[in-house]
């Protein structure tokens, strides 16, 4: 399910509990925004995100240069960004990118 990539990671069980609490709260959250890596997106994750009520996915893209990805040892290439973007778009998610300026290369 959702993979840990930072200190802000919540377990799947915690996310499911939060969704259940939201469904019965007097003031409901109408959209959930998550941040993840492009290479973590697959059909199983997309179904799970929909189940949780996620509406907006921000991808940690950092750069659109495969050369820079190699230098910073990101662990994926621009193909993963394109694939994740298309999969999320096809599933109806709003998508944002996190980019970093002045990376080496």
UniProtKB/TrEMBL annotation:
* Example of a GO cellular component annotation carried by this entry: cytoplasm
Alphabetically list the UniProt keywords. 4Fe-4S, Iron, Iron-sulfur, Metal-binding, S-adenosyl-L-methionine
Name of one Pfam family that matches: Radical_SAM
Iron-sulfur as UniProt keyword:
yes
InterPro entries from the UniProt entry: ELP3, rSAM, rSAM_horseshoe, rSAM_sf
Name the Gene Ontology molecular function terms of this record. Answer: 4 iron, 4 sulfur cluster binding; catalytic activity; metal ion binding
Q: Name one GO biological process term.
A: tRNA wobble base 5-methoxycarbonylmethyl-2-thiouridinylation
Report domain Radical SAM core positions. 24-105
| Zinc-finger found in the keyword field | no
Protein's recorded name: tRNA uridine(34) 5-carboxymethylaminomethyl modification radical SAM/GNAT enzyme Elp3
Per the UniProt entry, what species is this protein from, by scientific name? Candidatus Roizmanbacteria bacterium CG11_big_fil_rev_8_21_14_0_20_37_16
């Amino acid at each position: 399910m959702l993979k840990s990539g930072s200190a802000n990671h919540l377990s799947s069980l915690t996310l499911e509990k939060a969704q259940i609490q939201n469904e019965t709260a007097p003031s409901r959250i109408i959209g959930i925004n998550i941040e993840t890596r492009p290479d973590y997106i697959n059909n199983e994750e997309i179904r799970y995100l929909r189940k949780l009520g996620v509406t907006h996915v921000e991808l940690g893209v950092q750069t659109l240069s495969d050369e820079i990805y190699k230098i910073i040892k990101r662990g994926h290439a621009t193909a993963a960004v394109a694939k994740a973007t298309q999969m999320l778009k096809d599933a109806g998610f709003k998508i944002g990118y996190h980019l970093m300026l002045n990376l080496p290369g």
